[in-house]
Amino acid sequence: MKRILIPLCLVVTAHCVCGQRAYQYQSDNRLFEEGKELFTLKNYSGSIDKLEAYKNQSKNADLIQEADYMIASAIYQQGRKDAPEVLKEYLEIYPDTRHAPEINFFIGSSHFGKGEYEKAIYFFNQSDLDLLSLEQQEAYSFRLAYSLLQTGELDEARRYFALLKQIGHTYNEAASYYMAYIDYATGNYNNALVEFNQLKSLPEYKEQSLYYITQIYFIQNKFDKAIAEGEALLKAYPQSKNNAEVYRILGNSYYHLGNPDEAIHWLDQYMANTDNPLRGDLYILGVCYYDQGNYKKAVQYLGQTVRQDDALTQSAYLYLGQAYLHLGDKNNARMAFENAAKKSFDRQIKEVALYNYALLIHETNFTGFGESVTIFESFLNDFPNSKYTDKVNDYLVEVYLTTKNYESALASIEKIKHPSTKILQAKQDILFQLGTQAFTNSKFEEALQLFNKAIGLGAYDAEARNNAYFWRGESYYRLGDYQKAISDYRTYLNNTRDRNSEMYALAQYNIGYSYFKLREYEPALDWFKKYTNTEKDQAAPSLADAYNRIGDCLFYNRQFALAEENYTRAAGLLPSAGDYSVYQKAYVLGLQKDYKGKINVLDRLIREFPESQYIDDALFEKGRSYVMLENSATAAQSFEELMRRFPQSSLARKAGVQLGLLYYNENRPDDAIAMYKRVISNYPGSEEAKVALQDLKSIYIDLNDISSFAAYANSLGGNVRFEASEQDSLTYLAAEKLFMRGDNEGAQRSLVNYLQTFPQGAFSSNANYYLASIAFNHKDYDEAKRLFALVLESGDTKFLEESLARKAEIEYLQKDYGAALESFQRLQAIAEDPANREAAYLGVMRSARFSNKLNDALQAANQLLKNVKLSPEVNNEARYTRAKAYIANNEPEKALSDLKALSKDTRTAQGAEAKYLLAQLYFDSNETDKAEKELMNFVENGTPHQYWLARGFILLADIYINKGDDFQARQYLVSLQNNYKENDDIAGMIEDRLGKLKK
Asked: What residues does each domain of the chain span?
């Protein structure tokens, strides 16, 4: 205290001196003295006025400096906003002033009052505590200590508060409180507890002291005391702003004491009184509800804790998994266990979670991204000594037999050095399933290899082995190897036990077709009959088709009456596709010379099947029948209608020749000449054009007008080659024989030699076609395309259809979709071979789709789908194309039926995408429940086409976001992020949605 008293005495002495001098200079310094007296009396406004007046008339530098000091101090004491600037300006003018400690104290205090604690500390440090008054010293110490507390300099703040507690009076209690707080904040809880207990008797500090006492007991795990203090605090201050935290402490304390009911009671109040509950408290509340059996509430609160990558999240996911299991929601349970198993903060939790995750995958058959097999392997690798090891080994074998991620399962089995019989049985079934999967996706060569491996394993799984024979036969059939197909179908039939199955009947049907393709009609007839006797489904399209084929076999064997019976039966079984049956029946009637009956049946075909591919045949045969009935006029009408409606048909050319002959026989030479010239002009190079030219020559001879014929023939130039020279013919025939024998190398040399010798030879078109075929087989597509184009340009129609088909195929293979589309459309118009006609529609559909000409693709798809004999893979592609076109045309309701049909088999790429698109359409139509149902079915069934399953997961997240269920949305997104490994746009979609969920 002596240090403080000495400067205070000096200040008193100075005032005395000033008092003696004041009298001496009374007359000159009256204003100064009056201002000073007013300053002493704390009349700061009056003091400032007097002192400012004094300064205006005085030249005494010392007194002016003193006046400026009092003016600055008065402004500070008035609390004016400009006080800091005035005080700082005073120090700038009088840097050596004896009042500097006090002025710096005033500046620091001004900043303190504004909450500018760093600036306050700076100016307090520029002051000198010893040169301040006792009152100022105490204020200085408190303000500096508080500023240091606010800036985090706790040790230094506590030192000043301790000093105040020793020497101060005004701030003694406040200093004690802040010392206690600093001890609390720095973890010196015992000291803090003593200090707060001393302060709780003071009304001003009672509430906060009790609050911190409660906090300290909780931190020290003295939960009984924390509860007693907390409940007393709530009773004393029921409206306190700190009550939310007290609720939290009480809830936590009761939880740690094993009283979940009370814990829930207090934590529920905490949740109701805070906007941002702590994750740990959400976790505790969730666990308490779980222990009480309220699993929905448990999920509600635990789901809010999994926002960070830490041990709390891992534990919460484990509880979530168990809660979802109790709620019967295995899918969400699986994802929760998965997330717990992915983390390694607690190995015991990881072990339990991984086991449950693996078990759920096995039970739910969830195999979307390959985890069905690898998860059990992962468990055994991570926890080889686990109590669950034996069970996991058993489950692993079962998973092999049930998984749909066959690639992963097979890879896992291949790692086993000594597989058991059960494992080999699983392997055989997996190879079979992989084969059918490849077959379904039109990868027939790959399917053959897999079926070969399945069959080669032996009889571990007799059913899978025998089924592999059937599907290998199907693969051979698709590849055109009919003899091998027959062999495998026979093996299947010999070994199968279930003779009432659909596959058993279908194998007989396929054997019949294989023989039919080989033109072996007797055995084909026998197998088709076996099939018709076996097939139980009278509405099956294949049954009607089988009766048609029986009719064909009988027709080829010239058993026309029996053939007619079977055609009639086929038409009766499937009226919508009965055009072939009706046409064949008419044809048989003609062979039996029943021309009127034939005409009646053909008229029925034209009437009932106006879009049939046999309309041009019907018109031609109808005309021929009228010719046989010597009704030339009506015959001519049929031929003329054929030429008008189907100008590209080969039958139109034949009809033209028939018309020319009819007109000539009716003594209408001018009409006959006109018709023959029309055939020659419209179909140059065709056999019919050559016949027309010969007949035209005969007419001109009859008319004795050879000069007119010569002039006309000369006008044709090289478009029609009427006769070939002997050398031309012999040279070409020698080359053709080499080609027919399969000697492509020799044929190529001879054909090139022929074209070099006879560049405009009568057989140049034929030679170019054969050379093009050789180039095509050698995959020299550019050369093949050039040669096929020459055949097309020649006008020769003999190889027109095949050349156009191959040219279109090459353009498609070279991804020149615009040119391919044009070529396929042209083929579509002229094709008479059913295989080429189907290929044309298929080519138009594909080329149009890739060219983004969706309406053309749609029309072609519709044409393809009219064919009841369309292969399943082409049927799927046509439905897919049609559905995509409808969606692109903003007609999604029209796409639904196709999407539903396709989505039944998610093994195919179209089926997987259709499943997703169907759910997306439902979602877009606000039918979210339907969308969710489709996607859950997708997840359950799985697919080898993981991109679309991943898109399904993204859509599921969107559905849950739309429902406000952010937790489930995050679950699906995180699961997808952990398991989907492809490098595509899925990662961006996940990040986008997770980002939105964070916001």
From this structure: 1-86, 903-999
Q: In whole angstroms, give the CA distance from residue 708 to residue 696.
A: 11
Is 854:889 a contact under the CB 8 Å cutoff? Answer: yes
CA gap 151, 558 in Å, rounded: 110
Helical packing angle, 892-902 and 909-924, nearest 10°:
140
In this predicted structure, what is the pLDDT of residue 741?
A: 85
Q: Which residues contact 79 (CB under 8 A, 6 or more apart)?
A: 113
Q: Which long-range contacts (CB under 8 A, 24 or more apart) does 138-141 make?
A: 138/164, 138/167, 138/168, 138/169, 138/170, 138/171, 139/109, 139/170, 139/171, 140/105, 140/108, 141/168, 141/171
**Domain 1-86 grouped into CATH 1.20.58:** yes
H-helix segments, 220-305: 223-236, 243-256, 260-272, 279-292, 295-302
Evaluate whether 107 touches 87 at the Cβ level (below 8 Å): yes
Long-range contacts formed by 745-754: CB under 8 A, 24+ apart: 747/774, 748/774
> Which residue do the tokens 């964070």 mark?
998
At 28 the pLDDT is 66
Number of Cβ within 10 Å of residue 343's Cβ equals: 18
Provide long-range contacts, Cβ within 8 A and 24+ apart, for 31-34: 31/57, 31/58, 32/58, 32/63, 32/66, 32/67
HEC string of 393-459 equals HHHHHHHHHHCCCHHHHHHHHHCCCCCCHHHHHHHHHHHHHHHHHHHHCCCHHHHHHHHHHHHHCCC
| Residue pair 895/886 in contact by the 8 Å Cβ criterion | yes
CA dihedral 792, 796, 797, 802 (to 10 degrees): -40
* Nearest CA-CA partner of 839 in 849, 825, 852, 859: 825
Distance (Å, rounded) from C-alpha 360 to C-alpha 325?
Answer: 10
3-state secondary structure of 568: helix
Q: Tokens for 861, please give them.
A: 């798809």
49-71 tens-digit pLDDT:
999 999 998 889 999 999 999 99
Coil, helix or strand for 45? Answer: helix
User: Helix, strand or coil for residue 349?
Assistant: helix
Question: Which stretches does DSSP call E strand in 757-829?
Answer: none
Q: Tokens 């049954």 appear where? A: 543
Spatial distance between the Cα atoms of 816 and 859, rounded to a whole number of angstroms: 20
- Put simply, whether the predicted model's pTM sits higher than 0.85 gets the answer no
What are the Cα distances from residue 674, in Å, to 631, 681, 690, 797, 938? 21, 10, 15, 21, 66
Spell out the residues 6+ positions from residue 75 whose beta carbon is closer than 8 angstroms to its own: 44, 48, 82, 83, 86, 87
pLDDT one-digit tens code per residue, 31-54: 999 999 999 999 999 999 999 999
Q: Is the pLDDT of residue 470 over 90?
A: yes
Residues 823-857 have pLDDT tens digits of: 999 998 888 888 888 899 999 999 999 999 999 99
DSSP string, 72-105: HHHHHHHT-TTHHHHHHHHHHH-TT-TTHHHHHH
| pLDDT, tens digit, 9 for 90 and up, residues 842-896 | 999 999 999 999 999 999 999 999 887 788 888 999 999 999 999 999 999 999 9
pLDDT of residue 25: 41
Q: What does the alpha-carbon distance between residue 897 and residue 486 come to, in Å, rounded to a whole number?
A: 36
Distance from C-alpha of 805 to C-alpha of 776, rounded to nearest angstrom: 12
> At the topology level of CATH, where does 903-999 sit?
1.25.40
Does this chain's domain 1-86 share its CATH topology with 903-999? Answer: no
CA 632 to the chain's CA centroid: 67
pLDDT for residue 485 is more than 50: yes
Phi-psi sector, 609: left (phi>0), alpha (psi -120 to 50), beta: beta
Q: Where are the alpha helices (DSSP H) in 171-222?
A: 172-185, 189-199, 203-219
Q: What is the CA radius of gyration of the chain?
A: 50
**SS3 at position 238:** coil
